[in-house]
Write a structure and sequence with these properties.
- The chain has 674 residues and is of the alpha+beta class.
- The protein contains 15 helices and 18 strands.
């Protein structure tokens, strides 16, 4: 190979050999930059020149790239001053003619930029030609000498001959570039489509809003390879701000607070290769909030909505006004590039401008332009995010309405249930009252008819002639007894009516309880003799003086003793106890009447003092009574500012029950409680 190079340097290269060499380079090297550098090297060596330039051009566009030989030439082309002038200078050079041969560039004053370029490359003579493929210019070749040089016809013929294989190589480079660009576009399009499809499916499947927001910001940040992605939602101080009519050309900045609700996942996977880490990690920004009116960037994005606010370099924009206030999350030094996209929610069927729900913010640690396709994608993503937010808010509103309506229905059902239960209880009570009425009427009929029957029979017997004196006295006693019984029954009804209407008189006097009890003891013992009942007294030794209505108290004791005697087992004792107690500085007397026998069921106990109420089965057991006695006791007790309680419980050693009525009386009657 070394011998071959020496031979090439010693004798002019043949076009066929150089063309084959370029074709071989084109077949074996796939990288465009390496390929064109190799062609420039082969041409420079073939022409025994001090340097060679190969330029690439497409569709009459300015020169896109220049590759040089030797490496020192490539280094000069890579310097910043030369990079700015080289494409235009070489473009003008190629446009002058198809084949250009200049022996001494010092005499070429036609273009100042070219003169600067030649001076930088230290070139004195050039031989250049355009390369054409299928009739279209696709580049050029320039062979250079550092000293003035007279170009021969063989040099020109060789350059013209090899321009065709070089043009083919350049066409392949351009085609590969087009294919690479298309592949990149297809990849980007696929990535964009996948992101939109994922968001669409997430919204369609009604996923959690936080999941949708995270998916959106992660996808956009990874697609754009930016350092930071945020989603901010607005909370308006005036919820009706968006519904008020405001001229389209006048956009007011509302009092609204922006809060960061979502951030792109942190990590190096979001950073482009070689990019520096952001100065402020996004993880510190979640849940931070600020007023929109206090941030110039958000204010600008709000007024320009729905258009996105795209800034390649915030630091250059903000230096124009040093007084501009921005939120700390928008750090011009650490994150100079910003894309702020409003999230606009337009209610279904609305033709007015929608409510700005928040912003999608992308930031990068170095300045970068925002391409049109990027803006289109982020606007589409923002529309999807806005749809998800509106859908979630609507679902939450509907759910709240459903829950409220369900709660109302539940309360209504509970009320209806209570009303039904109350109605059922009232019906049961009415049935019970009707039963009580029937029992009362039956009892009253019996209590009224029995004395009347006895009196009728006694009158009939008194009418018989020749009636002896003894029998006549006996029948008169029957008449008197039955008449008194009838009178007492009627008096009880009248007394009960007066007590219930608070029309009964109260005759207060000093009463000796022990004396009162002793007066009523003997009649009851006589009455209970046939049943073998005894009355036991448990009284203190000291006198029991009380201020009360004697007749009412006497009637209470008589009714309680009468009731105890009715339900006591034969051969048992009825116990009457009395004692004095002090309750909250008030002196009271407590009287109790207890018996052993038929008890009172827990169900009947609360109703024991109701009018015409009698225990179950008493009528069948032929127990005398009208159901007025205990009702009269209750009214008389209230009439005396007293209280009465009843208890009934089974005995351990016997099948009978012990029933006790307890009466509590004030020692001194308090008229203020009447």
């Amino acid at each position: 190979m070394q011998a071959h190079r020496v031979q090439l340097m010693q004798q002019p290269a043949r076009p066929i050999d150089l063309g084959q060499q370029i074709a071989h380079i084109t077949r074996t090297i796939s990288d465009p930059e390496t390929l064109l550098n190799a062609i420039a090297t082969a041409l420079g060596q073939a022409f025994e020149a001090d340097g060679c330039l190969v330029m690439v051009q497409q569709n009459h566009l300015p020169v896109q790239a220049i590759y040089g030989y030797p490496s020192s030439t490539q280094a000069v082309l890579s310097s910043e001053p030369v990079q700015q002038i080289a494409p235009a200078a070489m473009q003008a050079l190629l446009d002058d003619s198809d084949l250009l041969a200049i022996s001494n560039l010092e005499s070429d004053e036609s273009n100042r930029s070219r003169a600067v370029l030649w001076q930088a490359l230290q070139v004195q003579a050039i031989l250049g030609i355009q390369t054409r493929f299928q009739g279209q210019v696709n580049g050029g070749i320039v062979v250079m000498h550092s000293q003035p040089y007279c170009w021969t016809d063989s040099n020109k013929e060789l350059l013209q001959a090899i321009s065709e294989p070089v043009a083919i190589a350049m066409s392949q480079v351009l085609q590969a570039g087009v294919i690479g660009s298309l592949q990149k576009q297809v990849g980007s399009f696929t990535q964009h489509r996948n992101l939109i499809n994922k968001l669409t499916m997430a919204i369609h499947n009604a996923l959690d809003l936080n999941q949708i927001l995270q998916m959106a910001i992660d996808g956009v940040a990874q697609t754009f390879q930016v350092n930071q992605g945020l989603i901010l939602l607005l909370k308006y101080a005036d919820p009706l701000f968006a519904t008020r009519s405001v001229p389209a050309q006048v956009k007011r900045i509302p009092k609204a607070k922006a809060t960061i609700v979502c951030e792109a996942s942190s990590g190096s996977e979001l950073l482009a290769a070689g990019e520096p880490e952001p100065q402020q990690p996004a993880s510190t920004l979640l849940n931070q909030s600020f007023w929109v009116s206090e941030c110039a960037l958000c204010t600008s994005a709000f007024t320009e909505a729905p258009k996105p606010l795209a800034i390649a370099d915030k630091s250059q924009v903000l230096t124009l006004d040093s007084d501009t206030r921005i939120s700390s999350i928008f750090n011009p030094e650490g994150m100079p590039a910003l894309l702020l996209v409003p999230l606009v929610g337009v209610p279904s069927g609305s033709i007015s401008a929608g409510t700005i729900l928040g912003f999608l913010a992308l930031q990068h640690s170095s300045p970068r332009p925002w391409a049109t396709d990027e803006l289109e994608l982020v606007e589409l993503v923002s529309a999807q995010v806005s749809t998800a937010i509106i859908q979630t808010q609507t679902m939450q509103h509907v759910q709240a309405l459903v829950e409220e309506r369900t709660a109302q229905l539940q309360r209504s059902l509970e009320v209806q249930g209570k009303l039904y239960e109350k109605t059922r209880q009232q019906i049961d009570q009415l049935r019970r009252l009707n039963q009580l009425k029937d029992e009362f009427l039956a009892t009253m009929s019996h209590e009224l008819r029995t004395p009347l029957t006895s009196m009728t029979l006694a009158i009939r017997m008194l009418r018989q002639p020749g009636l002896s004196e003894d029998r006549r006295d006996r029948y008169l006693d029957i008449l008197e007894q039955q008449c008194n019984q009838e009178t007492n029954l009627i008096n009880d009804l009248l007394t009960l009516q007066k007590l219930e209407s608070n029309q009964a008189d109260l005759q207060l006097e000093k009463v000796d309880l022990k004396h009162l009890i002793s007066e009523i003891r003997q009649p009851f013992e006589n009455k209970w003799a046939t049943k073998k009942l005894t009355l036991l007294l448990d009284l203190p030794k000291q006198a029991l003086k009380i201020q009360t209505d004697k007749d009412s108290l006497n009637r209470i004791l008589e009714e309680l003793l009468t009731n105890a005697g009715k339900y006591a087992e034969p051969g048992t004792a009825v116990v009457l106890r009395a004692h004095q107690q002090v309750n909250q500085s008030n002196h009271e007397f407590v009287l109790s009447v207890s018996n052993t026998g038929q008890g009172i069921s827990p169900e009947e106990l609360p109703h024991i003092f109701d009018k015409f109420r009698r225990g179950q089965g008493v009528t069948q057991q032929a127990i005398a009574g009208t159901g007025l006695g205990l009702a009269l006791v209750k009214c008389l007790v209230q009439h005396l500012n007293a209280t009465i309680n009843v208890s009934s419980s089974p005995l351990d050693a016997a099948p009978a029950w012990e029933t006790c009525f307890t009466l509590t009386l004030p020692q001194v009657f308090d008229s203020s409680k009447i």
